[in-house]
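2 proteins. here.
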Amino acid sequence: MLAIGMAAWVLRYLFFAYGNGTSNYWMLLAGIVLHGVCYDFFFVTGQIYTDNLAGERFKSSAQGFITLATYGVGMLIGTLLSGNIFDRYALAGGTHDWRMIWLIPAGIAAVVLGLFLLLFQERVGAPTPAEATVPYSEASAVAPG
């Protein structure tokens, strides 16, 4: 599901890159429609996966961390990059090369999708309390208290 969401981001950005207000208007509409698929299949599925993997004990911390990573750090990096890309592809007369502006995030999303497909290994569920418990002697050499 996460990969479907990432692929939808690539497709969405490609629709915006090649869509226009005349002959390819349908691409702009399709890109807008894909927003729901992108959001649900990536962000919501990621939240659900994290929730299931973390288990009850670490659920809140895991949700906070994934929110920081996606809505905090991820959007900060996106904001910093997008301003530079927007400025780089400014054309004479105050217009912009929108095709290149949209192809760059499409390429970035495609690379992220490729890395995800190559490196992600699914883990199912959080460890049971017995599996998660580390004997004191193995966890630390310092006595509590």
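next one coming up
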Amino acid sequence: MVQIMLNLKPYKNLLKQHELSLTAVRLAVLETLEIHPHSDADKIFNIVKNKIATTSKQAIYKNLNALAERGIIREIKPKGRSSLYETRTGDNHHHLVCRQCGAVRDTDCFDHAPCLEPMCNHGFKVDEAEVIFWGLCPPCQKNLIKTERKEK
């Protein structure tokens, strides 16, 4: 297993600013999300469990909720899938999700946030738009073409 060590000092400062304690599990969750963005709680749990054998799924969920509530991480909720988490926050980017394999990629706004303007804002001051684009990633497109050729 390759051990990747990240500079967690910015996260330590961020946790202190949000009055969250610096626990080993919390830091391991953040480190995992830096290396594996768009991970679900099960994947995060399995990775953290390899580092901290005493951790529990409950501890992972508790930390994910605390971090998301404070805006330190972002929770993404693709239709029909478990919530995904990432450390990229505050820039109003969107996501591309492959219908076939479930791959998730970030996509930036063209201009400024929010990227989309509602037809009628009903008096709201809109500062963010959350969009998930669905389709087929390049590898799944190639597989589909191969499958279609075999069927002909």
